[in-house]
Specification:
The chain has 564 residues and is α/β, with parallel strands linked by helices. The chain is built from 20 helices and 20 strands. Strands 6-5-4-1-3-2-14-7 form an eight-stranded mixed beta sheet. Strands 9-8-10-11-13-12-18 form a seven-stranded mixed beta sheet, sandwiched between helices.
Length: 564
């Protein structure tokens, strides 16, 4: 499989995102598989942000640090990416970046700024570079010009045509460079790409929520979760849903609880610091047995930490959030397709079992995008709501622990939801025996949830010696390494449901070596496995610098541990 990594780097406000958008759209429509992810600083302007775009002949979902083509938009980018640059890297940039590149790297001058001025507008630089990069992969010129014209059509016919001309000039310049420097970036096209759509993780979560019947969204802005809220705001009118920014996260979670209580399907999107403020609301949902669905997009902490970077450090926060004991479900989607499907499933499970369901993503998953098959759309939403009769008891004791859930005004019964301990009707009680019975009733749900737990995915050599344990967004990178080194008796178990935890004791006992792969400092998932399954995972590969685990990082760590 042919694959190339293109990295665009520049300061916020320089138009890196514009070039990225045009390039990836043209490449996808030309029949190439694309995968893109970014790293950016927490500032509105300045700093250095980079986008990595992988172009391949087959679907590719893992993150690689390798740079085949680097396009710096400003000084400092080359040094910022120095550790990712190799002898085979080609740098395409303005002449004044040559000294920063050094003599041991292939540097090809691209006078995009001069070309833009000659074409009459310095803002054409991004369009020129988009056309130039498209030419390196022999993307369809007609698709390029049509896309550019469409993008700028709201700016007027003249500017739209001028940008289209600029893109073609960039395309010609790219062809000239390839011929002069004998460059070839050959990637086979795949006709099936045309049937796919491009989604990022945030869009997948948003669409998954809508597919699950979400009709009320409450949030307070906090990166990287805000992107989900913005997506839903943009779809609110068309989808006839309510999206509301509240004064803080406490109000947001309580508003969602209120929406569920009234018969709606609420959704909260937040990040670690915001979720911390929602813990009391979590307990309220647990006691009152009101469904709750929260999207928790992780970023490095403690406190503000690295607000625009990625991590898997909020597992313990989600697992133990709230005072007292009550059941919950924790999902951690492994990719964009699961971000959609598991978010959809979360609404049904929250409704069915009257519990909080937390969807753990991270900045990497939220901001990464690639082409995927069109997701299935639910034809029917199952609402687990009953019509109340005059004898209705909201918290009637049952063998399963699940009591029929009514909503105000639906039937003749009286509905009481109570954050205090209560009897079967919902009236407050402090009677010792009833208190125990009610707590036992709520926790009975956990027994059912354990039977329905999503099983982890096994990949690799069936006769493995080494077993890697991973969860969440690391799936495709770990899988790629496992498949590459299948002959090393390497395998993996990957979890997309973190709690309740599936029993993997049989897998663990078969392995000579078990290694946990996580993006936090302490190995939080490994600790959960030890707590739940009494199996201690001593060897761990942990990355907690705010950057996603890459193929190169994992390969190096496994080599140092004597696995490869």
């Amino acid at each position: 499989m042919a694959t190339f990594n293109v990295v665009l780097g520049g300061a916020a406000g320089q138009g890196v995102n514009t070039t990225e958008e045009m390039l990836t759209k043209v490449l996808k429509q030309s029949g190439f598989h694309i995968f893109a992810t970014k790293e950016y600083m927490s500032r509105v302007r300045g700093g250095i942000n980079t986008t990595t775009i992988r172009i391949s002949s087959e679907p590719l979902r893992s993150y690689s640090e390798t740079i085949d083509i680097l396009v710096p938009f400003t000084s400092g980018v080359i040094n910022w990416c120095r550790e990712r640059i190799s002898e085979s890297t080609v740098i395409l940039g303005e002449e004044n970046f040559r000294d920063e590149a050094g003599d041991d790297i292939t540097f090809i001058p691209v006078n995009a700024e001069k070309m833009a001025k000659e074409l009459g507008n310095k803002l054409f630089i991004n369009t020129i570079l988009s056309g130039l990069l498209c030419s390196l992969f022999k993307a369809d010129k007609k698709i390029l010009t049509k896309l550019v014209q469409t993008k700028f059509e709201d700016k007027g016919e003249n500017l739209s045509q001028e940008n289209s001309d600029a893109a073609l000039e960039g395309y010609k310049e790219g062809e000239k460079i390839c011929k002069e420097y004998n460059l070839a970036f050959d990637v086979d096209q795949d006709a099936s790409v045309g049937e796919t759509i491009v989604l990022n993780g945030a869009e997948a979560v948003s669409l998954g929520a809508l597919n699950g019947g979400c009709n009320f969204v409450s949030f307070y802005p906090m990166s990287p979760a805000t992107t989900v809220a913005v997506d839903l705001v943009n779809m609110a009118e068309e989808m006839e849903i309510i999206v509301e920014q509240f004064e803080d996260e406490i109000a947001a979670v309580n508003a969602s609880i209120g929406a569920w209580f009234g018969g709606g399907r609420g959704f909260v999107t937040t990040s670690g610091g915001g979720f911390a403020l929602m813990c009391e609301g979590m307990s309220l949902a647990g006691m009152a047995e009101i469904p709750l669905v929260i999207h928790l997009a992780q970023r490095p902490g403690p406190a503000t930490g690295l607000p625009t970077r990625t991590a898997q450090g909020d597992l313990n926060l989600a697992l133990y959030a709230g005072h007292g004991d009550f059941p919950r479900i924790l999902f951690a989607p492994s990719n964009i397709s699961e971000a959609y499907s598991l978010t959809t499933q979360s609404f049904d499970l929250a409704d069915k079992y009257q519990i909080p369901v937390i969807i753990l993503t991270d900045e990497y998953l939220v901001d990464t995008y690639y082409n995927v098959d069109r997701p299935n759309v639910s034809e029917k939403i199952n609402h687990h709501i009953v019509e109340m009769d005059k004898k209705y008891k909201r918290y009637v004791l049952s063998e399963s622990g699940i009591s029929p859930r009514g909503v105000p005004g639906y039937g003749d019964g009286i509905l009481i939801a109570n954050g205090n301990e209560h009897d079967e009707y919902g009236d407050t009680t402090e009677e010792a025996g009833l208190t125990v019975v009610m707590q036992d009733k709520r926790m009975k749900k956990l027994d059912i949830l354990k039977k329905e737990t999503l099983q982890p995915r096994f990949c690799g050599n069936e006769n493995y010696y080494v077993l890697l344990i991973s969860w969440g967004s690391t799936f495709d990178t770990v899988k790629n390494i496992v498949e590459r080194y299948n002959h090393k008796k390497l395998a993996m178990l990957h979890f997309s449901q973190i709690y309740p935890l599936a029993d993997i004791s049989a897998y663990l006992k078969r392995a000579e070596t078990v290694i946990a792969v996580e993006q936090n400092m302490t190995g939080q998932f490994a600790e959960l496995i030890q707590k739940e399954l009494c199996f201690k995972i001593d060897k761990r590969i942990l990355k907690y610098d705010g950057r996603q685990i890459s193929e190169e990082f994992l390969e190096k760590e496994l080599s140092e541990k004597g696995v490869l």
